[in-house]
Design brief:
single chain, 351 residues, Quinone Oxidoreductase, Chain A, domain 1, six-stranded parallel β-sheet, 15 strands, binds NADP nicotinamide-adenine-dinucleotide phosphate, oxidoreductase activity
Length: 351
């Protein structure tokens, strides 16, 4: 019987990732078999592998799964009744395959790739035909594989509150925290939209890279821990119209201190912690009221807005930033590299 190769994790740490074989799956009715070419890593994949992705009640913890959600691959077999795809089509995965449009709910969250469902760190995987998006032809496999989580999350943070097709940002101040996958995607989308982009980082070298990508202002949050004051100064006391909050516990209060009146803070991540210090609680009700702020939780985005974003990328010929590519057998090293935090943009595994 034909077999495929896949990495699995018992959710007990990166060192317990295991490369093995499994029978080659066949697509059923309404499904396609995809030969996976590139997988892009997200912060979430490290958390899942460490057994730390526990904050969504609707996401069951499994005992063993294939990790990762983001891939670019080629359709090699189509099941009965599939009209959307043909053999040879280049496709991208969607993080929550059932989230096709509108508001996400527990139902879609309970079907996420790379927990609770098996993910994409494998040579082949079967997908429902509706779960895939056409890969833009101007991007390499490695570049295209970075779009499903990082870019869609940044896209939704900047445009999710606007009606579909009315993508904005021109003249707005957008603040991005750090230089990881979401932030660098936000930088590229923001600049292509005509926004004025302010980006923070712990590293001057990374800030120099961000400048090359068009960042208008850069702030080192290590040497300038009160970066929120600098945002106010740089914007002539206007503040940020949109903030991509990936820091969490140690940054949210600062974001409230540099948001514009009527601005939007997108709660995306928690790289500085999930819990406030007991003696330093963030009093969200007053902080939101003070400048009539919108605080919006973000969980990726639906497929229709992913496709809207791909059209924007094509129009502006945006090339996602792939910092480092690892080979399939080097997957553990790739996870460790991402967890180490020295990357700028995305880390990819070539299958
Ligand atoms: N809600 C969603 O849909 C969604 C989607 C994607 C990601 N996320 C979450 O968003 C966060 C970022 O994800 P990612 O994939 O972009 O991660 P990533 O590529 O690993 O990047 C993380 C970056 O955060 C920066 N950072 C660390 N501590 C910081 C601090 N105290 N203040 C500001 N920046 C800090 C670092 O940038 P420097 O090295 O430049 O300092 C680091 O490179 C994670 O918590 C992830 O779980 C959520």
């Amino acid at each position: 019987m034909a077999s495929i190769q896949q990495w699995t994790t018992p959710l007990k740490g990166v060192d317990s990732l295991q490369l093995g074989e499994a029978p080659k799956p066949a697509p059923g009715k309404g499904e396609v078999l995809v030969e996976i070419r590139a997988v892009s890593l997200n912060y979430r994949d490290v958390e899942v592998t460490n057994g730390e992705y526990t904050h969504h009640k609707s996401v069951e913890q499994e005992s063993k799964i294939v990790p990762c959600s983001d891939m670019c691959g080629v359709v090699t077999q189509v099941g009965d009744d599939v009209t959307t795809w043909k053999v040879g089509d280049r496709v991208l995965s969607t993080f929550l395959p059932d989230h096709q449009t509108g508001q996400v709910t527990a139902k879609e969250l309970s079907g996420g790739l790379g927990l609770p469902l098996d993910g994409v760190l494998a040579t082949h995987r079967v997908f429902p035909d509706y779960a895939l998006v056409k890969a833009p032809s101007y991007l390499s496999d490695e570049e295209a594989a970075t779009l499903p989580i990082a870019a869609v999350t940044a896209w939704m943070s900047i445009n999710g509150m606007r009606p579909m097709g009315q993508n904005g940002g021109e003249g707005e101040y957008i603040v991005l925290q750090g230089t990881g996958g979401v932030a660098v995607s936000g930088l590229q989308i923001g600049k292509a939209s005509g926004a004025k982009v302010i980006i923070t980082s712990s590293s001057d070298e990374k800030l120099a890279q961000a400048k090359q990508l068009g960042a208008d202002y850069t702030i080192n949050y290590r040497t300038q821990p009160n970066w929120e004051d600098e945002v106010m100064r740089l914007t002539d006391q206007h503040g940020a119209d949109v903030i991509l909050e990936v820091g969490g516990a140690q940054t949210l209060k600062k974001s409230f201190d540099c948001i514009a009146f009527g601005g939007l803070i997108n709660c995306i991540g928690y790289v500085s912690g999930k819990m406030d210090a007991p003696d330093d609680r963030t009093n969200v009700n007053l902080l939101a009221l003070r400048r009539t702020v919108t605080l919006k939780g973000i969980i990726n985005g639906p497929k229709d807005r992913f496709e809207e974003m791909v059209a924007f990328y094509e129009k502006h010929q945006i090339h996602p930033v792939v910092n480092k590519v690892f080979s399939f057998p080097e997957a553990k090293e790739a996870f460790k590299f991402l967890a180490g935090g020295s990357h700028f943009g995305k880390v990819v595994i070539k299958i």
